[in-house]
Amino acid sequence: MPNATDHEGRASSASARAAASAAATRRLLLVGATAGALAPLATPALAQARPLRIGMVTSLSGPFAALGESMRAGMRLLLAQSGERFADRPVELIVEDDQARPDDGVRKARKLIGQDRVDLLCGVIHSGVALALRDVVTEAQMPTFLLGSANDLARKAVSPYILRPTKTNWMLGSTAARRSHETHPGARVVTAASDYAAGREFVGDFVQTYQEFGGRIGRQFWTPLGSADFGPLLTAIAAERPDSVYVFFAGSDAVRFLRQWKEYRLAGRIRLTGTGACFDQEDVLPAVGDAALGAVNTFHQSPTAPASAAFVEAYRTSGKGLPGEFSTTGYACGQVLRAATERTGGDPTDWARTRQALFDAPVDTAFGRMPFDPRNGQAILDIHVHEVRSAPGGVINTVVHTYPQLRDPGPNA
C-alpha cells in the first residue's frame, strides 16, 4: 500500500479517480469539470481500498514560510506515528503553497479539490486566506479543517463544511486583556500590529475587552506585513511612554520586531505582552533569545503544558527543537482527522456523520481535550498565559496561568 506522500502539485492518477463519491461529483462541477469526466459512485469496499487523500494548503514561501514548514512537519509526524494509515486505510497527503496570499490560496484549494480530487482539505495560516477559502469549500461541499483563526469563521461566516481545530483570534486577544487587567489594573497600553485581518482582530479584541475592564488604551500603531524596519514604530512607542505594549507580529516580522525592540533598548523598560505567535517557541524565540525575556503572551499551544508532553518528546526525538504553534497545529489537526476517520469506520467523507461523531465526544490532542462547538464547528480550548523565561540552552514559554475550555462567543457575537 502507498505511504503518505507530499506531492507539492502532482495530479492524481486515473485509478484514484475511479471511486468518486456524489459529493466529489458536485465538487468537479463547481470547479468547471465536465459531466463526462465523472466516475461511478464508490462502493464501501472501493472507498476502503483506495487511499484517503488529504489536501493541505499552507504557506511555504513568503513571511510565514517557517510557520508553514512547521505545520507540514507536525502533520507528517502524526502520519508517521500512525503508520501512514487511519483506521487501517492508507493516507496520502498533498501539500500546496499559498504564499500567504488569498488569491493563491483560492487557486491552490481549487486545484486540490478539482484536479487532485482530495477527500478532505486542511491547513491555512493567514486569516485572509482562510476567509477567502470559505466560499470555495462551501460551494464545493468539501469537508474542511481550517486552521486559520479569523473570528468570522466562527461567527457570521460559519460554514457547515468547515471545522476549526484551532483557536479564534478573540480567544487570545480577550484573554490577554483579561490577564493585563488582573495583574496591572489601570495600566495605559498602546498597541502595535501587522496591518491585515488577524492583526486587526487581535488588537480589536484586546482593546474592546481591556476597555470593558476599565483599562486605558493609548495610540494604536499598524505596520505592513513583511516590514523590515521597525525603527520609526519603536521610536514612536518610546515617545508615548506607555506602561505596556500589546503586540501582534508573526513569523519573520516577529523576529525582526523583537530584535529591534532590544536594539532600541526597550526590553526591560516597557512591559511587553501579545499573542503567542509573536513569541512562538519554535519559529521566533530561538532567533531572538533574551530579547523576549519577561514578555507575557496568551496561547492555546504550550511546550510546558501537560497535554503537550508526549508530542513535545516525539517532536524532539524526530530531530527538531521545542515545537511551536504550527507544528503543534499540524499534529493536532492530524489527530482530529485520524479520530474522524476512526469514528466513521474509515470513511470521513460522509460529512454529516463525521461532524456529528466529532460533536459527540472530545478528541484528545496536543492542545488538550478538544470538544467542538456544534453552533459553528469551532474548537473549545484551554488558553495558557506564558511568561518567557530563561532555560538551559535558551528561553522558553512557561505557563503561569490557564483559562480553561474557552468558547468563542459564536454566531450571535
Automatic annotation (TrEMBL):
Keywords: Amino-acid transport, Signal, Transport. It holds the Pfam family Peripla_BP_6. InterPro entries: BCAA_transport (IPR051010), Leu-bd (IPR028081), Peripla_BP_I (IPR028082), TAT_signal (IPR006311). The keyword Transport applies. Residues 51-389 form the Leucine-binding protein domain. One of its GO terms (biological process) is amino acid transport. Belongs to the leucine-binding protein family. This is ABC transporter substrate-binding protein.
